[in-house]
């Protein structure tokens, strides 16, 4: 049997002293080993690289000799329980959890966390955590080397969030600091950081929930045009939006660009599906409409006022997927610029037949696999006399390019 003990994040998380009683092998970090009384004759292994430690555990398990593994907080929450269960089977584990660092951090600031998104940046790409922080009002980020408060703050300087940095939780050196992203970026936080909370303070309390975790996905998408403010029906129609969303595949942890956003209907729909979104729009009134539509649907959309492709050079981070609407004579250059940077897919809506070949060539020239359809739909429309006719919408070409074996597979594991 392998006994897994969570300790150290909160006073009383696990009793000091005899938690390893009876074990012949005790595995844990140096501070955890120093906090317990090792049984006489027991072997201690300082947990560094995981594979050698698991190999040592395997030797003792094979001989049915008792093992104790010490970990911080709740070892079943982004912790060592997963690796132990995969290697030895869950039936061999006796897990005794403590208080997780996430639960402790939210407790320190007096907030519930049943509606929080939790991301681990420990040994993972920080970009996933950054995009979740941009898209959701309450996110906890488990930090790691090169992915701490300073790096997170640098990425979130312009996003209006507050960071709560919790360091050395449960110890005499515990510190909880509330800072702006810019302040976080300018400080050396050392190695004792446990977790960073990223909060939109106006929405941090959140409504009463029946299901834990981030807000559930929308009940529907490809919303009616009437759900958005727009000018003279210049909006991506819901039939086109439905297929565009399917090809974009926006997910939590993704970054999506909506270039030539217009009303921002695609941007808003991607944000409703959990992605971080940047909308690029060249007209001042269009910028206002995108912001108004995002606010009306309760989502965060970053809006950049500028004309593509020039405005794209000001966007620091490459997107996972891009939607391009409009574009005029600049469309081939816009598509090419987006394709150079998109990690997974580019979707282009084109009304003019003449522009289709050049847009397709731009996708193919960037090495994308390219496909497309002409969408033509007719909607039911009432006529006098309680009868119905079919009203045709304008046909639209929808092209999409997918990067072969894309540079990313989405949310980090």
UniProtKB/TrEMBL annotation:
It comes from the Bacteria. InterPro entries: 4pyrrol_Mease (IPR000878), 4pyrrol_Methylase_sf (IPR035996), 4pyrrole_Mease_sub1 (IPR014777), 4pyrrole_Mease_sub2 (IPR014776), CbiE (IPR012818), Cbl_synth_CobL (IPR006365), Cbl_synth_MTase_CbiT (IPR014008), Cobalamin_biosynth_MTase (IPR050714). Residues 256-326 form the Methyltransferase domain. Keywords: Cobalamin biosynthesis, Methyltransferase, S-adenosyl-L-methionine, Transferase. The keyword Transferase applies. Residues 18-184 form the Tetrapyrrole methylase domain. Pathway: Cofactor biosynthesis; adenosylcobalamin biosynthesis. CDD domains: AdoMet_MTases, Precorrin-6Y-MT. This is Bifunctional cobalt-precorrin-7 (C(5))-methyltransferase/cobalt-precorrin-6B (C(15))-methyltransferase. It comes from Streptomyces hyderabadensis. The lineage of its organism: Bacteria, Bacillati, Actinomycetota, Actinomycetes, Kitasatosporales.
């Amino acid at each position: 049997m392998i006994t897994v003990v969570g300790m150290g994040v909160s006073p009383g998380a696990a009793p000091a002293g005899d938690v390893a009683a009876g074990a012949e092998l005790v595995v844990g970090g140096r501070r955890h080993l120093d906090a317990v009384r090792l049984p006489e004759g027991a072997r201690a292994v300082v947990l560094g690289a995981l594979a050698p430690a698991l190999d040592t555990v395997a030797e003792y398990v094979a001989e049915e000799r008792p093992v104790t593994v010490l970990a911080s907080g709740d070892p079943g929450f982004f912790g060592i329980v997963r690796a132990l269960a995969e290697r030895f089977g869950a039936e061999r584990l006796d897990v005794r959890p403590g208080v997780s660092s996430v639960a402790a951090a939210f407790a320190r600031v007096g907030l519930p966390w049943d509606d929080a998104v939790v991301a681990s940046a420990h040994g993972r790409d920080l970009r996933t955590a950054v995009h979740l922080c941009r898209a959701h009002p309450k996110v906890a980020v488990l930090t790691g080397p090169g992915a701490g408060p300073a790096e997170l703050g640098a990425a979130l300087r312009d996003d209006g969030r507050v960071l709560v940095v919790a360091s050395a939780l449960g110890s005499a050196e515990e510190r909880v600091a509330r800072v702006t992203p810019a302040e976080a970026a300018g400080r050396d936080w050392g190695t004792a950081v446990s977790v960073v909370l990223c909060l939109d303070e106006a929405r941090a309390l959140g409504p009463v929930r029946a299901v834990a975790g981030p807000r559930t996905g929308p009940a529907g998408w490809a919303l009616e045009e009437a759900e958005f403010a727009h000018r003279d029906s210049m909006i991506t129609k819901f039939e086109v939006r439905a297929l565009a969303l399917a090809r974009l595949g926006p997910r939590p942890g993704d970054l999506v660009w909506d270039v030539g956003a217009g009303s921002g209907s695609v941007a808003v729909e991607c944000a409703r599906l959990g992605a971080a979104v940047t909308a690029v729009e060249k007209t001042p009134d269009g910028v206002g409409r995108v912001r108004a539509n995002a606010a009306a649907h309760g989502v965060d959309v970053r809006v950049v006022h500028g004309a593509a492709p020039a405005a794209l050079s000001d966007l620091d981070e490459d997107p996972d997927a891009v939607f391009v609407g409009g574009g005029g004579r600049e469309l081939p250059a816009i598509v090419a610029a987006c394709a150079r940077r998109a990690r997974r897919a580019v979707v282009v809506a084109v009304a003019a037949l003449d522009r289709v070949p050049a847009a397709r060539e731009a996708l193919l020239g960037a090495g994308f696999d390219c496909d497309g359809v002409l969408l033509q739909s007719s909607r039911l429309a009432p006529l006098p006399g309680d009868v119905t006719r079919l009203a045709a919408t304008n046909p639209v070409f929808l092209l999409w390019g997918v990067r072969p074996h894309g540079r990313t597979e989405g949310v980090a594991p």
